[in-house]
Model the fold of this input.
Amino acid sequence: MKQTNTHPLIADYLDQVCRHVRATEMHRRIRDELESHLLDLMDEQMEEGVKEEEAVRQAILQMGDSTAVGKQLHQIHKPRVEWRLLVYVVAFLAVGLFTMYGMQVSFIEFKLDSYWFYALFGIGAMLTFTFTDYRKLLPYSFHLYVLTVIVVLLTIADGTTLNGKVVMKIWRSIPIDFVSMSMYMFLISAAGMLLIRTWRFRGTASNLIVFVLLPASLFLLAGSHVNLMLYLFGFMILLMYTQTVRKEKLFIVIASGVVFVGTCLLDSYALERVLGWMQPTKDPLGRGYFYLESMEVIRSASFWGKGFHAPLPSMPSLESDFKFTYFIHRYGWFGGILIFIAVALFMMRLARVVKDVDEPYGKHLVVSIVPLFSVYFFWPMLMSTGMLPIVNLEIPFLSYSDIGTALAHFAALGLILSVHRHRSTIGKPHTYMEK
Done:
């Protein structure tokens, strides 16, 4: 039986059911599905000779109590937070803060205060993103891209160089590394622009300019080769996942790879690090110094380490790039293994988020962000043991970093948690993917 208007009794029943479902974006789909079931039940009743009004009442009785049905649907579609990831983050922060107290060096006190501030502010930012519907960002993907370009240009034009990075000093002269933050912002905007029809660029050349050449030019002008390589790495993974024309995808991936390799070859500092990694003993006081020193610290730490009050090794960046080396020095290989296992479990949880998400925009976000987290976590640990070349990367949440990088990590994880929180919702934003 076809009906163009919802029966008043059915409409009232649907209102009562939806009153118990807090996920308002689900109401339209729930109403459509329940109404379809009720109409089928009415058909069965009326085929047996029951009048319409009575058939409606019988159908509602068969469907069940509206309160019970509503609560059951609420449990099915209720957004759920991945609390285990939050527990890992809090544990990493606690370990990072605790180990900072063991560094009895004059400048550490200042960095420790900053660490507390970044941690508290970062947790607030992460929770804000977690409990915000990530899908609201989708219509503003292009706006985010333009804003990122403008902010990076302003940073290059009016920023100051601090520890080899171009930063902007804002409130109370706090230096913000917007260039490092822009790496995530470019990827987030690309995740939306590759999906939504409004901002989808049709030509291969325009895609190459927008997603590869312009960001690459900005990173190179800022002297941030590492962030450029990280962005290209994340973008290539995102693009390979995106459903688009194969020839166009292949061309842009190859072009991104060429820019990536070219950046590595043009960066003389990175080449020196690679040469030092390949033959550290050839120049033990130069480019091989950090490799030899870090490996010697780890070798001499023994299984249980040298203790909380042991003298610090004579090498820089123990609170940031070489935090894993410092941790093994203090707590031995046993402590290093525990940290490595915790990081591996954390990344496994993030990988499961990627697997569980079906919504296109959410899938694009996690596919572009999660691989970057794996690089940020595993590269500093492996480079401390001499297994990878040294790069200026800090382990997120465990190591001290500037506020821009720290907030970028917290915000990116908050987006992942938001995607996971809404994974069971039915309503999806309108997206366009070229088959």
